[in-house]
Amino acid sequence: MTALYIASKILTFPGAYLRGFWEQLTCKILGLPVEVPGYLRIDEACGHVEHGLAQKGFAAYLMATGPGFMNFVTGFPIFLAGFINLVFLGIRPSDSIGFFILYVLLTYVGISLLCNIFPLVEDAMNLYDVAFAQKKMNIIGRIFAFIPSIIAYAGAYLEKYAVTVILWIVFIVLSFI
């Protein structure tokens, strides 16, 4: 599955690259060491930054959810700007080739950002471990981290096996049928 994962990251390289940037920025903010710089390496951490694991509750939460949240906040409006014009307004190349290309690019960039919102499996496991196994968060923090940690954990496995990219491809194909 590593080849499929790397192919999905290369296919969605704008989102993978920006996700790596958000992770490195989060590591700088939290003071976590970045072990291997570079965002688009051809290995199992493609689109991510290899870093030390956070040992405190909020740091683990921010490392697992912060970069994905930033990709979502950036990608969703970009995706909507292109997708609405292509699907609901029906812009075709015969209407305006320039606008059609712009909307296709906006849709692609938005989808590539949305395909890369989940953390590495190690970051999701670290969040669960710090918050619930080691109980380094207080009860209020664990309550607020419960649902995001489940989403991050499940999404990390979906992204690891390129299911997010496949689902987006199916969604786009079905919307144009």
Would you spell out the secondary-structure blueprint of this structure?
Elements: H1 2-11, H2 13-30, E1 34-36, E2 50-51, H3 57-88, H4 97-114, H5 121-133, H6 139-160, H7 163-175
Antiparallel strand pairs: 1-2
Helix pairs in contact: 2-3, 2-4, 3-4, 3-5, 3-6, 5-6
Low-confidence stretches: none
Report how far the terminal alpha carbons are from each other.
29 Å
Average pLDDT reading = 90
How would you sum up the global shape? Answer: elongated
N-to-C order of helices and strands: HHEEHHHHH
**Share of residues in helices:** over 70%
Major sheet: arrangement of strands: 1-2
Structural class by helix and strand composition: mainly alpha
Q: Please provide the count of β strands.
A: 2
What's the number of helices? 7
Instruction: Give the biggest sheet.
Output: 2 strands, antiparallel
Rg of Cα set: 18 Å
Total number of domains: 1
Beta-strand content estimate: under 5%
Quick summary:
The chain has about 180 residues and is mainly alpha-helical. Helices cover about 70% and strands about 5% of the residues.
